[in-house]
Write a structure and sequence with these properties.
2 copies of one chain form a homodimer.
Chain A: H1 3-10, H2 15-22, E1 25-30, E2 35-37, E3 45-51, E4 54-60, E5 63-70, E6 75-76, H3 79-84, E7 91-94, E8 98-104, H4 105-114, H5 116-142, H6 145-155, H7 157-162, H8 165-172, H9 176-186
Antiparallel strand pairs in A: 1-8, 2-7, 3-6, 3-8, 4-5, 4-7
Helix pairs in contact in A: 4-5
The structure holds a DNA duplex.
Chain lengths: ~190, ~190
DNA sequence: TTCGTTTTTTATCATTTGTAAAATTTTTAT
DNA sequence: ATAAAAATTTTACAAATGATAAAAAACGAA
């Protein structure tokens, strides 16, 4: 997934503003298993996923709970760090070898102050992430685990292929045993 | 809760920008039981709660599920309408007589295009709502119903007084009977 | 107040989900 | 190719939650 496509999907910037933004972005790559973001610290960097898949998890009384998957075109960001300059709660682990576009939060914030188009880009970015998060919340409250698994199968069939079921079960808020039962009844 | 305080809590605007924003805002009041927003339509208005308490709910197979409470200082908005110009999923019901500050989305969007401070105000608004939504999502995934009730008691003791337990139970994702059991074990 | 309605609690039983452990399948490394 | 490790499924039992009905408590209008 190339950078222009990722930027354009958020907000269509005039050429000049887009170039200013792109000047602050560089490419990086890390191997499967790498921890890209660590919880309980202020994270200064934003990543756009060019290639690969990652998961966000927290450690909850000696076990890991996965609460987000990100793949090509999505943004890896500690919202608490980005928005409030506070410690984030997410660890981000790479589930495949990955390539990212990297952007320093400090550079972006400078642009917010002097370029109205980039301020509106930042607004649209937050708004779109907000809608995604709200939909996840509502989905989680209103659907059973079984329905949520079926939706996942339908909306992201590749995820089931690329991510091990233990992580999927955790993401759905159930145990792996329970997910096995659900899969058995569907088949 | 006065308007200046609500605006300032989102983003500290220069006097001129703040006045431009305030020119678009008017006051309205509705009685307890009024439905302020209806699901499955595009909602053109944003409300800031001056006084009172409201709930957001959806109709899910013949019963209502509450998924949000808003009180003084909070914003009543259909995010889907605001962000994507699509039908929202929330109904908003007033649980007390309420007073609001009312702002038309169309006026706000005009200001986004010409005033960088208001564009950044809009960015901060979305960012802060995003953090709140993300925290609700994480809380819901990681805590048991019993823990969520205890947190609610601690963080919003007034809510338990002002809102009937059936709505609280729905908000927590459990039946009212189950909430009664939880309350019985805590006492 | 007092009656009627609504809300909350309690009790019982059915269903779902979790825990633990074993069995099976798949993946990885040599 | 084979052994070891990791992931997934299955089973049995325990714990938590849901559904329903009915009783008790709280609330509101006349």
């Amino acid at each position: 997934m190339n950078l222009d496509k990722i930027i354009d999907a958020i907000f269509e910037l005039p050429e000049e503003s887009k170039n200013a933004l792109k000047e602050s972005i560089t490419k990086v790559a890390y191997p499967k298993g790498h921890i890209l973001l660590k919880a309980d610290k202020i994270e200064p960097t934003i990543y756009f996923i060019k290639k690969g898949i990652v998961r966000a998890f927290i450690n909850q009384s000696d076990k890991e709970i996965t609460f987000w998957f990100g793949k090509e075109g999505e943004t890896v960001i500690s919202m608490k760090s980005y928005v409030d300059n506070q410690n984030g709660y997410e660890n981000i682990e790479l589930l495949e070898d990955c390539e990212f576009y990297e952007l320093k939060k400090s550079n972006l914030q400078k642009l917010f102050k002097k370029d109205i188009n980039i301020a509106n880009f930042g607004r649209r970015f937050a708004e779109k992430e907000l809608i995604k998060t709200e939909e996840r919340l509502i989905h989680r409250q209103f659907k059973t685990a079984s329905e949520r698994y079926s939706s996942l199968l339908k909306d992201s069939p590749d995820l089931i292929q690329r991510v091990q079921l233990g992580h999927i079960a955790s993401y759905l808020g159930i145990t792996q045993v329970s997910l096995s039962r659900i899969r058995a009844t569907i088949r």
